[in-house]
Design a protein that fits this description.
The complex is a heterodimer.
Chain A lengths: L1 H17 L3 H33 L5 H33 L4 H6 L4 H35 L3 H32 L3 H24 L14 H9 L7 H14 L2 H37 L15 H6 L3 H15 L1 H22 L6 H27 L10 H5 L5 H31 L3 H28 L8 H5 L2 H32 L8 H31 L4
Helix pairs in contact in A: 2-3, 2-5, 3-5, 3-6, 3-7, 3-9, 5-6, 5-10, 6-9, 6-10, 7-13, 9-10, 12-16, 13-14, 13-16, 14-16, 14-17, 14-19, 16-17, 17-19, 17-20, 19-20
Chain B lengths: L1 E10 L2 E11 L4 E5 L6 H9 L6 E6 L2 E2 L4 H6 L1 E4 L11 H11 L4 H14 L15 H14 L4 E5 L7 H16 L3 E5 L3 H7 L2 E6 L2 E6 L1 H8 L6 H9 L4 H7 L1
Parallel strand pairs in B: 3-8, 3-9, 6-7, 7-8
Antiparallel strand pairs in B: 1-2, 1-4, 4-5, 9-10
Helix pairs in contact in B: 3-4, 3-5, 4-5, 8-9
Classes of the chains: A mainly alpha, B alpha/beta.
Chain lengths: 553, 250
């Protein structure tokens, strides 16, 4: 029966590909090429890091393998947490579960089908990102195809094992606490664990790896390098297997490969066995709605107090209430909070060598903080239109224009985003101790960038709406999400390039250069940046509005 | 009233609605029948502004839906084929939101929303999130929503699906009362019995074209089936003889 279920997936994929128009083929090929370009860029960066590490005298090889083990440990934890979230949706809330559950199919077969789907979606992207690293490793250590094959042979086992941990946790939790409230708890806990994990990795200061002077004594540094990285975990088995393959110790490689595959199959088999007893209890409980009475006193809405009565206030009120009641947004907020804290920590840990250097960092901060804001937009602003979901008919059939709907979504997003931008800009320039001009230009640029990215997020969200997805991650990882990230990063890059002119003049003036300021060039920079920002806001907005007005689903 | 002139809706090379022309008068209940895929829901979506027609014109309560979109929408109430409602709002909050969208004054909503919830037997669940509602409860909530702003035209796509017999009876009585007061009702349904009892006129659509339209006796004459009920007329017009071979197999 499992083969039948898997065949339906293959058939769906073939049908989807077969139904693609030439335009869709061209579009998908362009995005695939852009993705390949990103992976190539990552490969170049990782190659340079590995070249640097391997060139360190005496301990070069140790450093390379230590980094490999740390990377695999991070991969393990990311796949585990990601599968925890994915399995929650696919195993308990997927659209086709009602059909599968009432079909004459064994519960274990349904579990196999759904858990394999969870494992695949939780790991394919993270697994793909390992590819540029392994290729860089092969180039640096001059390894051949045999090494790559040895990696490809053990990677699926490693990913399956990592995903199985997350699936097992979700399965047991919903078995022990079968209610939709557990789903909310899992969302928040898993996001919290992701945030904590991310924070721990950063606060462990991995930069010490390439700065031996940061550790007190050399012996401590060598111990750190030689010690296994979490030896009880599969990530260490994978790292050790690859180290053996690189050294041509094929017997040792086979032992670790057997250990990985054995553990993966054993854990997965135990999971399938457990599912026979636990899956249905969890599934049944998860279908129950959260019963909690709320009273509505028909008072004037808080938004109406601010903006007056009318549709605008009602839309904002609906946005606020539905946003805050959805725990998936809380989990996203926790992740973003973690990202912001780690970012601020990293800025604080920067070596302070010279005032000019601090000011330069404060200016470049526009780029990195802009990246944080763009990540924030990808999580909250871009999905905002799609999150209307199948209830889109309510707004579309009501006496509202698409522009009004988009405007209210923009208003709802822009204030928190600007607040984060202001906090990031003000705190980082204060940590760095940037001069007044740099502070004004970076905080001002960040404020403008945050407003533009909000407009861009709403516009592109309207251009690529996905009203029928099962979870928010599908919106973020869609083609539209990719376009948003690419467009926002291009805009931030262009902003930095343009604002670099006045910054250069300012640095020259600080160094005492006479006639540092060319006011014509400064005016050209100001006008260019204004035009760029207006276009980055208006073009996606207009395209999105037109597209949403004609959207047919 | 609803006036449709030469409505065409194409999806790529497929024509879902092919030159539909129809007028539904004020106070009339019009039933729209047809097999699955006939183009009924597409017509509803074109009338309510959820889809843009490829050609033709639709006027609702005197407003052109292409040029006076907001006025037309303000005059309409829609019950879609699937009653998806924001899961994180309560029943009361959903009705309040709909009331605000259609400009119903707060003073009018305050007594009206509890009344509507009471009428549809949703009052005990008015404070619960919609995500905990059954399909029938959501359908009743959407029906309550369209009654809140007292529209001149009701466009209903399978309004009885999921309703218990008592609620179905209530909804029928509500439609009859509203029609008596002058509300225009355009209703797609597969329940021929309801269409026969409730509708003043019935249109039958196949392959995007309306093949018959009129009162039940007029349809009987068009189908040349004397003494048949609506089911007989419908099967005669849309084809049913081909099922006999299948029935023998079963």
């Amino acid at each position: 029966m499992l083969d039948l279920l898997l065949r339906r997936r293959a058939r769906s994929l073939v049908n989807t590909l077969g139904a693609c128009t030439p335009y869709e083929w061209a579009r998908n090929s362009a995005f695939a090429a852009a993705g390949a370009g990103l992976l190539c860029g990552l490969h170049v960066g990782l190659y340079r890091v590995l070249v640097y590490l391997s060139s360190v005298e005496l301990i070069g090889a140790l450093l390379v393998w230590k980094l490999t083990a740390m990377l695999f440990l991070m991969t393990l934890s990311m796949v585990t947490v990601s599968s925890l979230l994915t399995s929650l949706t696919t195993l308990f809330y997927a659209y086709d579960l009602k059909f599968l559950m009432k079909a004459p199919v064994s519960l274990r077969v349904v579990f196999l089908d759904k858990s394999l789907e969870s494992a695949f979606f939780a790991s394919w992207m993270i697994g793909l990102v390992l590819l540029p690293f392994v290729l860089a490793l092969m180039r640096v250590l001059h390894l051949g195809a045999a090494f790559f094959l040895s990696f490809a042979a053990v990677l699926p086992a490693f990913l399956l094992l990592a995903a199985s941990f997350g699936i097992a946790f979700t399965l047991l939790l919903l078995y022990l606490f079968p209610s939709s409230r557990t789903r909310d708890v899992v969302w928040v806990l898993s996001s919290l664990s992701m945030t904590v994990m991310y924070g721990l990795v950063r606060f462990a200061q991995p930069e010490r790896l390439i700065r031996p002077d940061a550790l007190k004594i050399v012996a401590e540094y060598l111990n750190f390098l030689q010690a296994p990285t979490a030896p009880a975990l599969p990530s260490w088995w994978l790292a050790r297997a690859l180290e053996s393959a690189a050294a041509g110790r094929w017997g040792a490689w086979a032992l670790d490969a057997a250990r990985l595959w054995g553990a993966a199959l054993l854990v997965y088999a135990a999971l399938v066995w457990l599912a026979g007893a636990a899956y249905f209890t969890g599934y049944s409980g998860a279908q129950e709605g959260a019963l909690r009475k709320r009273t509505h006193g028909f008072a004037v809405l808080p938004e109406q107090r601010l903006l007056g009565a009318g549709r605008r206030s009602a839309l904002l009120w609906k946005e606020r209430v539905t946003f805050l009641r959805d725990v998936k947004h809380w989990s996203q907020m926790l992740l973003i909070l973690g990202l912001v804290f780690v970012y601020l920590f990293s800025i604080r840990r920067l070596p302070h060598n010279a005032p000019e250097f601090w000011s330069l960092i404060a200016f470049l901060n526009v780029g990195t903080a802009g990246f944080v804001i763009s990540a924030l937009g990808l999580r909250f602003t871009f999905p905002s239109v799609s999150l209307e979901g199948r209830g889109w008919w309510i707004l579309k059939s009501s006496p509202l224009t698409v522009s009004q709907i988009m405007r209210q979504k923009f208003v709802f997003s822009v204030f928190p985003t600007v607040a984060v931008a202001l906090a990031l800009g003000a705190m980082t320039t204060s940590f760095i101790g940037a001069d007044r001009f740099t502070t004004w230009i970076s905080v001002g640029a960040l404020l403008a960038v945050s407003v533009v990215l909000c407009g861009m997020g709403i516009g592109l969200g309207a251009l690529f709406p996905r009203f029928t997805v099962e979870n928010i991650h599908q919106i973020e990882s869609s083609v539209g999400g990719f376009v948003y990230m690419a467009a926002s990063l291009c805009y931030i890059g262009a902003t930095l390039s343009i604002l670099a002119w006045p910054m250069r003049m300012h640095f020259l003036a600080m160094m005492g250069s006479p006639r540092a300021w060319d006011w014509t060039a400064a005016a050209v920079a100001a006008v260019s940046w204004t035009i760029l920002s207006a276009a980055a806001f208006a073009v996606p907005w207009t395209l999105g509005r037109r597209s949403l007005e004609n959207h047919e689903e | 009233m609803i006036e449709i002139e030469g409505l065409v809706k194409r999806f790529g090379s497929h024509t879902a609605v092919d030159g539909l022309t129809l007028t539904v008068a004020s106070g009339e209940i019009f039933g729209f029948l047809g097999p699955n895929g006939a183009g009924k829901t597409t017509t509803v979506k074109c009338i309510t502004g959820l889809l843009k027609p490829t050609a033709g014109r639709v006027r609702v309560a005197g407003f052109d839906t292409a040029t006076q979109t907001l006025d037309a929408k303000r005059a309409m109430g829609l019950v879609p084929d699937e009653p998806f409602v924001y899961p994180k709002l309560t029943g009361v909050e959903y009705l309040r939101f709909v009331g605000e969208l259609y400009g119903v004054p707060l003073a009018a909503m305050k007594p009206r929303i509890p009344e509507l919830l009471e009428m549809f037997e949703l009052a005990p669940w008015g404070g619960e999130l919609v995500e905990s509602y059954s399909h029938g409860m959501r359908q009743k909530l959407v029906l309550a929503g369209i009654l809140l702003h007292d529209p001149k035209v009701l466009v209903l796509d399978e309004p009885m699906v999921g309703l218990d017999p008592k609620s179905a009876r209530l909804v029928k009585d509500i439609f009859l009362t509203l029609a008596e007061r002058g509300t225009t009702i355009f209703m797609c349904t597969h329940v021929l019995e309801i269409a026969e009892k409730l509708c003043d006129r019935i249109g039958i659509m196949i392959g995007g074209k309306m093949i018959a339209c009129g009162t039940v006796p007029e349809l009987e004459a068009q189908a040349k089936t004397r003494g048949s009920d609506l089911e007989g007329i419908f099967l005669s017009l849309t084809g049913g003889a081909e099922y006999s071979a299948l029935l023998r197999y079963l």
